Amino acid sequence: MALERQSRLTLAGVAREAGVSAPTVSKVINGRHDVSGETRAKVLAVLARTGYKSPLQQRRTLADKPAVEVVLDSLISAYNIAVLNGIMECAVESGVEVLLHVTGIEAASPLNPDQRAQRIVDEGRCGMIVVTSAFGDAPLEAFRRRGIPVVVIDPLNPPSEDVVSIGSTDWAGGKDATTHLLELGHRRIAYLGGPDNVECNQARLHGYLAALRSHDVPVQDDYIIAGTFAADHGARGLDALLRLDRPPTAIFAGNDTIALGVLAEARRRNIQVPEQLSVVGFDGTSKAEESVPALTSVAQPFQEIGRAALRTVLRQLRGEVPDSRRVELATHLVVRESTAAPR
Amino acid sequence: MALERQSRLTLAGVAREAGVSAPTVSKVINGRHDVSGETRAKVLAVLARTGYKSPLQQRRTLADKPAVEVVLDSLISAYNIAVLNGIMECAVESGVEVLLHVTGIEAASPLNPDQRAQRIVDEGRCGMIVVTSAFGDAPLEAFRRRGIPVVVIDPLNPPSEDVVSIGSTDWAGGKDATTHLLELGHRRIAYLGGPDNVECNQARLHGYLAALRSHDVPVQDDYIIAGTFAADHGARGLDALLRLDRPPTAIFAGNDTIALGVLAEARRRNIQVPEQLSVVGFDGTSKAEESVPALTSVAQPFQEIGRAALRTVLRQLRGEVPDSRRVELATHLVVRESTAAPR
DNA sequence: CTGAAAGCGCTTACAG
DNA sequence: CTGAAAGCGCTTACAG
After folding, report:
1. What is the reported pTM?
2. B122 contacts in A (CB within 8 Å)?
3. Segment A284-342, tens digit of pLDDT
4. Does B89 share its domain with B59?
5. 3-class secondary-structure state, position A332
6. Is residue B294 less than 8 Å (CB to CB) from chain A?
7. Does A232 contact chain B (CB < 8 Å)?
8. Which residues of A touch B109 (CB under 8 A)?
9. Are residues B115 and B20 in the same domain?
10. What is the spatial distance between Cα B285 and Cα B281, in angstroms, rounded to a whole number?
């Protein structure tokens, strides 16, 4: 009975239910721009509630598991892999298919955002998780307009409103790392950060500043060096710091890669870590564990982020409204061998 | 132009072409009985010639890319990621969807091999690539019986006949690594290998033996230590080798992880690499590049293996018979900082 | 059997 | 931004 109703559910029926005309529903389904936000929301709600499917979608076997597309910019980054791992774990538990899409691989996509969104719908995806920075607001907006749940993970910069994003508590992590060094007795602590304009880096920097402030340690401007999230920034940064009249006794690096660059440069210069210099990284990837000395680092909960992302997509599919458009999961400091009290 | 025609070809157009009415064409397409044989034939001819597709089919063929399932045992291993990268590259080029399945994540699968194979078919997969050792012969056989192309990548041990597998030239790689050390002047070269019963390890060992033989260097049994593909085997192996009366001047490790274990142990003992000890690894993962000193290693062509695997699946889908049930792609030695002439 | 006519579900073009 | 109206492509019901 309910099934029969379902199978008879037409676009016109949805329109009646939503109190709008059929053309309006058609526009919403096709992601047209000429629909007011209010009307769109009304229609999307009815679509979600009734589970309307276009004739094409109806014909697709109903037995299909829901499929979620995961978009990554590359498979090289250890974060991406860890996040993907979390997504896969959750996917197995919840019986969701995962389609993998790696953007770094494609040549410039010949599809504009709207075509791309259409393709996703045509291919029967029911949600997306975007673990990439190469994915601008325009495509996200196109997905949102069609009511495809999208979750963005750890964007370098926060996406437009209405897109749900998940990341780490970068500020708290930066504060933890710095507090650890302060508690070891360091007072001359440098921040060798990533790009100035990247939000997560700003948050880590401000966590560092907050920790210094709450320990009444004055901020020394030449201890703060912005750069890139790359190893050679770590190497060059150490070089610059050592040329100061009073070089720091500890370095908090904006990520593990920078920190490993510091370690490598220190080794070249025969500077003992942690005896002569303490180093803390950020990310807590396996590189931190494997380095010599093993790197003290603020671990991001990548796996949990992946799990949370898929759970959030599934919740949105069920029509639940996410608690918040931004969720940050707790980092935790992992103390290893690269930090000690200053001499 | 031709494209535009295609996209504009309607049922009405077919009807005009065939000199019948639209309803008649509709009946033919839908397999109705109330059409004369003559008319049906006429219509079918036009349908075949013009390649008419209903709107549904038009969208469907656009949407339904072939989907290949990739089975990995984990996302932690750097090989798996590199192979996956190659698969994704090829997938983008050939317009294939990739579904990801990570076996390590699941609890014991409640499905038996046959059910599992059935599920794959039901879900419309058209091929599988298995990058795992946890996947026995039974499921592979079940897939094969259903005519689902399966390619197994770098199995620890060769799978049953009729399953196509792709790997690296382990023997040649082992020979290259050892020859490199011999050409540097080493004569006391150890092989710190992986598990005795694993084929790729056997091949590397025999490449080592072949290189020694062709340089008339006698094999010394206590220079050959089997173990696991783990770092602590490297550390303990170095320990054992140093206790010999005449310790080796060079070590060929069965993989990079073992080699890095050797490097770490050497550092602990203040043995200079490569001045006092040369070390060669196998795999050529990024770890080899990033270690200090950077590790000379036999690089496996993981990316190419991934690409070849997907290409092979697609070829099988097109009905081509694979050239060989076993393909090995060339490794190549990458000389970095961990090898030098003996003192 | 055949096809003109009506109908269905969705989309498009456009007036307000 | 909205929806009445027209249109599109296909199917159905039915007269011949």
Report:
1. 0.77
2. 63
3. 988 898 888 999 999 999 999 999 999 999 888 777 877 788 899 999 999 999 999 99
4. no
5. strand
6. no
7. no
8. none
9. no
10. 10
